[in-house]
Amino acid sequence: MTESAIKQQHPSIQLLIFVGIIAGIIGAGYIIGAGVVIAVFGVNTLVEIAQLNLNDPHAAEGLWIMQIVSTTIPIFAAAFIFAKYVVKDTGGYLRTSFKFPWFLMVIIFCVMLMSAPLIEGLANINQKLQLPDFLSGLQKWMRDTEDQAQKLTTILLQMKSAGSMIFKLLVVGLFTAVVEEFMFRGCIQTILLKWTKSPHAAVWIAATLFSAFHLEFFGFLPRLMLGVLFGYFVLWSGSIWTSVWAHFINNGTAVIVSYLYQNKMISINPDDTHVFNLPVYLFSLIIILFLLYLCRNMAMGKLKMPFK
């Protein structure tokens, strides 16, 4: 298919092409990752990883290989290949421009810092949601999937040294932020914007897909909110790096707090969802709305940048 033919295709077709590329590359990545694990640790380790057996001495190393080779690299490759070689518009789809006020990154940092209470409140609401009785089987599957995801996260975020923490800060914090933002706020949000002609619809639909992609249904609402924040950062600034920065702050904070808790440097459990209370949730919401107002106006040139 020629370049002009691709660009003339309806965005729904572009989305199908992109999903097909992702599925194909992730499938190939899984086969390669499994082969590497078998070659390095043996087939038994691969079986134990599939069962999320924490007792296997090589479970963590094998999981990291599978995570990087079958997910992280393929998602980045899919977004890059689609933008550069399929639609041949890397800048238009991945939005890699650095042309935005630098102080925007400071505001975004404050937004992410103040979002912690609101994310906790949404998580608590999400945990209480119950499906009707006739969907009890679906709810059990959702809960089992959530427990598996939590178990996977526990294995991946085991950190006994500062070096291990830095490695995971780079992979979980930075690399994951880059690849997921290229995929969702880059390719998918741009395709949806062309399809719906509505910036708000594109942001919210992309955020919904982003949250669903993680298969953590009882954490759907807080991740949806994060996806919406990331989406508006890109929409207002025109740059993917604003959402990568926000995503990195969110993931990186989780890594650092987990490291500090595991090594008994802090007493706050990162899995505790009852750190804040209702007044703090409301205060968090008000401050975030104010900061988003500043963010939008600065990104759109309606607010002068301080210290210029």
Automatic annotation (TrEMBL):
Transmembrane segments: 15-43, 63-87, 99-119, 165-183, 195-214, 274-295
One Pfam family linked to the record: Rce1-like
Signal peptide limits: none
All residue ranges annotated as the CAAX prenyl protease 2/Lysostaphin resistance protein A-like domain in the record: 165-252
The keyword Hydrolase appears for this protein: no
InterPro entries per the UniProt record, alphabetical: Rce1/LyrA-like_dom
Tree of life domain: Bacteria
Entry annotated with the keyword Flavoprotein: no
Keywords from the UniProt entry: Membrane, Transmembrane, Transmembrane helix
Protein known as: CAAX prenyl protease 2/Lysostaphin resistance protein A-like domain-containing protein
Native source species: Mucilaginibacter panaciglaebae
